């Protein structure tokens, strides 16, 4: 991929990255985004968006957006260096590892997204001298923290970027205790990857809150979509209106509270799952949880939680969970139904598949 990325950054070609090991997804992307047909001369790469429903939209990214993101990342982290590539290169997070490496004149060390402890330790050992970075999703970090050798390997890096969605409760604390230098990133394909690090925008990036919605702008912004949608989130020149609910505190730090389309309307009130998840996951008996809404004849929707029980722990009761939530949030936000699962379903690069849980437990 590196020679291809070099050609992209030099303006010699435009690419549409697709997965090499998933013929069905590759066919969907190439067909939906019309591979081989004309595209704006300024577009360097069309990155398929990560949604699983409908037609992929395809973020249109320019060389200037890609390089602005990569340069601002290196500046924020303390300089260019060697990268660990543990995310698929057809996703923006993986593709940006290639862009950063190309601009730094280095070659990333690649391992599978489902890496083993031995693969991770060996990859970090082979990264060479100088500054060393990795870009992971929370599920990968969580898995690595379960093994002392893997955790020590990540702790030896200068920064470990964690994106792809919110971090489960407790993972950040475990990473800190292991000495892993975690940097939480927020962004998406439409912003050439993460553009807000630890709540603060990178140089050249902009953010604001508009009617509770996170709106992003600046140098890393895509030109729009290959397959435009209505309403168009790019309709305001220079800005992208996300589907995320957020707030900015007095010191200018962004907190993302959840997605608009994940909000649960129950009994006339709106509940954001992420806030409930953080409280439920703090229960001693819960290792991981996802909160979602299912249809309810009386309430409109009822709040439901899927739980992974902590190793060696007793299965909590619904009353236990409701009482625990009520110590922090209004009782209206507490789950009215819980389900114990072996694992949380995920899609793409590790994002929670909330829709799969809704389909599984609706009507139960």
Automatic annotation (TrEMBL):
Keywords: Ligase
Domain AMP-dependent synthetase/ligase, first and last residues per copy: 38-204
Keyword Ligase: yes
Protein name as catalogued: Acyl-CoA synthetase (AMP-forming)/AMP-acid ligase II
Phylogenetic placement of the source organism: Bacteria, Bacillati, Actinomycetota, Actinomycetes, Mycobacteriales
GO molecular function, one term: acid-thiol ligase activity
InterPro entries: AMP-bd_C (IPR025110), AMP-bd_C_sf (IPR045851), AMP-dep_synth/lig_dom (IPR000873), ANL_N_sf (IPR042099), ATP-dep_AMP-bd_enzyme (IPR050237)
Pfam families: AMP-binding, AMP-binding_C
Ranges in coiled-coil conformation: none
Domain AMP-binding enzyme C-terminal: 276-351
